[in-house]
Amino acid sequence: MRLWRPRAETDPFMETEKEKTGEHPRKDRKRRQVSNQLVRATEPRRACWALKDLRPEAKKARLSAILFACNCQVTPGQLCELLKYAVLGRSIVPRPSWCQIFHQNHPNNVVVFILQGMSQLHFYKFYLEFEFLRKIFRHKFCLPPQSSNFLADIIGLQKKTTGDLPKTSKGSLPSSSSKANINLHNDSIIQKHGSKKVGLSCCLLTMEEMKTFHFPLQGSPDCENFIPTKCNGSITDNSPLFGLACEMCLTSKGRELTRISLVAEGGCCIMDELVKPDIRIVDYHTSFSGITKTIFNSVATKLKDVQRQLSALLPPDAVLVGHSLDLDLRALKMIHPYLIDTSLLYVREQGRRFKLKFLAKAILGKDIQHPNTLQHDATEDARTALELAQYFLKYGPKKIAELNLESLGSHQELQAAGQKPRNTTEIPHPNTSVLECVNLVGQKLLFVALEKGATELSSYGNCETIKCLSNKEVFEQARVEIPLFPFSIVQFSFDPFTPVFTEEMSKRMKTKWREMSTVYAGPVSRTYNFRPLKRLLKSFGPIQSMSFVLETYQVQRPVTELTLDCDILMKELERDSENRDTIYLSGVSESFKDHIFHVSSHFPGLEAVILPKDLESGKQKKFCFMKFKTFASAQRALNILTGKDWKLKGRGALTPRHLHKWLRGFSPESRWPPGLRVMPPPSEQQALQTLKTDHPKVAAWYWGQKIGKLYQNMNPGTLCLILLPGCKSIHGSLPGLGMMGIKDEEESTTTGMGL
C-alpha cells in the first residue's frame, strides 16, 4: 500500500519565541565589572505599564492522520512503545514506529480502557450501539487475537518481576548520582567543549558559527545598513559580560524592535528602553512582550537612539550574552564581534535548542515564566542568560553534562515544588516496562479492575491497584481516581460469548456484509451483451463476483432479515469519525498520485492519499482513499474529482482500513464440518435468544456511554486508548480492535503532502 502523509511538523522543542524569565543573578566569578559610576550615571528608564494577561494560544496536541501500521494492525509490543513514549517523551525513548504525536513532547495524561472479553466482532455487530466511541475516536486499528496475558503484553511485563522495579520516593524524580546511567562521552556538551573547565574565549561564538546561524556580520549582503558597536578590544577571561534581550513587534515590513534591556554582571539593569518603530505596527505581540498600542502613545525613542546609547555603554572588550542573540542583534540592526549565545552554549542533540525557561529551572534551579505573571520583562531574559553563562564558566562542561539535560528536556515543565536541578530521569533499557517508566518520573500508575483480574499488578509498589466487585464499581472508582493520576488503566470485564454463539455471530456478520455489498440490477434479457454492463459496474470499484438474475426490474440491495437496518448503518458509517473526512475514488490510474501531487494546491486540507495494492501481485488497485482535515474540504475535493475534468467516480468513504482487514479475515467456510448443522444445547439457545432480545446491544450502548462520561471529564491533552482485546482459544480466534485519540485533539493544519 502506498501512503502519502503530511510532512513532518516543526519540532516543538525548537525555539520560536523568546521566553521571559527573571530572578536575581548569582555572583559566580570575579571579573572586571562595569564601574558603579557608570551604573549610577545611566539609571534605567524603565517603562511602566499595565498589562493584560494575553498569551498565545498553544497548539493542541494531535495524532498523525494516518497510522503507519502494517495492514492497519498494531501489536501489543507496539502499544507498549506508545505508552512508554507517552510517559517519558521523545528525548528519552524513540518515537513509536506506527504513529506520531504533534505539538507536544508527550501527552499530559494517559488513560487506557480495556474491555476484556470483547473483540472487533462485538464492535461491528453492535456498531450502532457503540455510538460515542465510533464518533469520537478517529484512529482505529486491528489487534491480533489476544494472548494469554494481554495486559502484561501492552505494558511490557512478560519477563518482569517485582524485584526489577527501582525504589523511588513519591513525588520526586530519580537521582542521577550513579554516573553509570549517563554516558558523558556521548553528551553533546562534552563533545563540543570537552570535560575540563573552559575560559571565556572558548565560550564565544566562532566566525563559522555566526555564519552558520545567520548572525549579522560585516560585509553580509543583508547587513548593509547595520551599525557596528565599535568594540574591538582584546578579550581575556576578565572581560565584562552584559546580558542582552529585546522584544519585537510585527510591522508591515517585518519584525521591528520595540524594547531593549541590558544587564551588567552585578545584576544591575543599565538600559531598559521602549523603542517606537518608524513603520506602522500590525501586531504588537502583546502576549509575548506586554506592549500595547496605548503604551506607545508617549514613546519617542527611535532605533537610532538606542543604537547610539548601546554603543556608548559598551567598553571595547564587552561580551554580549543572550538567548538566540541573532534575533536580538537583527532587531537592533547592529553587529558585535564577541558573543555568547546560551541556546548554543548549552548545545543539544540534532541541532535542537533548549528553551530559556527550561535551562533556568534545570541549571539555576529557579522558576520563571509563571503562568500567573501579568508582566513580561526583557530585563529578566537578559539577567537569566547572563547567569547561565556565569554558571557554565564557573562549573565547566562536565558538571553540566552530569545533569543529563537531554533527558531532562522531556520534562520541561518540572512539577515538583523546589525541585533541585540535579534530579534527572535515567535512560531506560529497551526492555523496560511501562511501570518502570512511570517509576522513573516519580509517579504511580492507577489500575482499576474487577478483583479477579486485578492481581497481576497489585504486587508492584508504584501501582495503585483498586479491586472492585462489579463493572459499575469500576466505573465509579475510575470517575474519582483518574483525575489524580497521570497514567491510568481501567479494565472492564465481560463474559465472553461461547464458541457456538461466536460462530453464529460470525456467520451472520459475514452474511450481512456480503448482502450489503450486493446490488441487483435489471431488467436484462437473455440475449443482452453483458460486456458493457461489466465494464460499467467495474468502474465503481473491484467486483468479487457477478451473477445475473433476469427477474429483477430495478437497481437495489437485497432485502433480508440482516439488511433491514442497512440504510441506517450506511449513514452511520458515513458519520464515523474515521470516515467523515475521507472520500473513496474509483477509476484512478497509476499516474493519479503524481497528478495529485502537482495540483495539491487545489485540494486544501489534504492529509493523506491511501493507495491500496493487490496482496498477491503487489500492483496498485484502481481505487484510493483521500483523507482531509475537515468534512467540507473532503466534499469540495469530491465535487472536483467527480467533475468533467477528472471524470472519476466516488463518494464519501464507508470502510476504513482496519475494517478491510477484518472482513478479509472471515473464513470463507464455517469451522464446523460441511453438511453438519450444529444444534446448540439449551444454554446456547438461551444465549442466542438473548441476542434477539437485544441484551448485548444494551450492554454495548450502556458501557459506551459510561466510557464517554469518563472521557468528557478528562483533562485536555489526555491520550486515551480503548482496547477490545479479542480472544484466542482452541475453538478459534477473534481479532481485537483498538481506538485512540487525544482529548480536544486539534485538526491538522498541514496542507502539504509527502511520500
UniProtKB/TrEMBL annotation:
Does the record carry Phosphoprotein as a key word? no
User: Which residue ranges have biased composition labelled Basic and acidic residues?
Assistant: 1-26
- Give the PROSITE patterns listed for this entry: RRM (PS50102)
Work out whether the entry's keyword set contains RNA-binding.
Answer: yes
The molecular function terms in GO held by this entry are: exonuclease activity; RNA binding
Could you tell me the keywords of this UniProt record?
Answer: Exonuclease, Hydrolase, Nuclease, RNA-binding
Cellular component GO terms, alphabetically? nucleus
What residue intervals traverse the membrane? none
Extract the ranges annotated as region (Disordered): 1-37
SUPFAM superfamilies, per database record: Ribonuclease H-like, RNA-binding domain, RBD
Q: Where is the RRM domain?
A: 581-651
Q: Which residues form a coiled coil?
A: none
> Which InterPro entries does its entry note?
Nucleotide-bd_a/b_plait_sf, RBD_domain_sf, REX1-like_exo, REXO1/3/4-like, Ribonucl_H, RNaseH-like_sf, RNaseH_sf, RRM_dom
Q: What is this protein called?
A: RNA exonuclease NEF-sp isoform X6
* Gene designation per UniProt: Rexo5
